Amino acid sequence: MIELKDELLSKYTTFRTGGPAKRLVQPETAAELAELVKSLKENNEEYIVIGNGSNLLISDKGYNGTVIFIGEKLGEIKVQGSTIYAGAGAMLSAVARAARDNSLAGFEFASGIPGSVGGAVFMNAGAYGGEICQVTEYVDVLMDGELKRLDAAEMQFSYRHSVAMEKEMIILGFCIKLQSGNRDEITEKMSELNKKRVEKQPLEYPSAGSTFKRPEGYFAGKLIQDSGLAGYRVGGAMVSPKHCGFVINYENATADDIYRLMQDVTRIVEEKFGVTLEPEVRLIGDFS
Asked: Which listed residue (59, 210, 227, 240) is catalytic?
């Protein structure tokens, strides 16, 4: 188990912002993780769990507790027939490559999502018409101090949501079921989706992907664009002119810059269209 004090969390988020964690711990096995969580609970210590940090905005003040970092040590990938098991620390792109290499189709949609399995299951991540829930067979979790296996129905998946958001539950890994496919066709589809991403998304800047959830009946990016907010800036944070659904760290933005910009966008869109945007990005720490 690796343990660091006062570790800057900007190193662990794709926004590249965030202050220090009082303590950051990286467990190397599920047993170590279970023991760590048990100890933290017994001592009434605050903790959060993070993976690739691709959907997080962490306060500039940091986090006054323990950050549990689920990294590659908990990222095994095993292929068996038409199923793939991947640990929470595995990157979705690596799972997609494993599927391709074994001629398994159905996970191409996730090949460009810049997140890890744990976070993707936690929020039922999706892209290009695909969602994690569509391929999930079961999920291994740490809950109530025990290692448990929940089937997809028990995860109560919905749009950018799972039951893990409501319960004290840590994702340890998942099993997905795919279909046999043609490796060249799978490769081509992944390349095509990657090309779309590069063309339409501001991948050259740090961001957390889509900043806001899709409001029912609307597209967040279009509402923001139609509100005249393309290129809108607060400090070093900007609404990407390339894709208004993305808030980007344009120029050494602080977490506070990004947060204030998100607040402005929410207010202006509501004033113009009467639609309340909800953040897709999770806010961690004190933004007051």
From this structure: 210
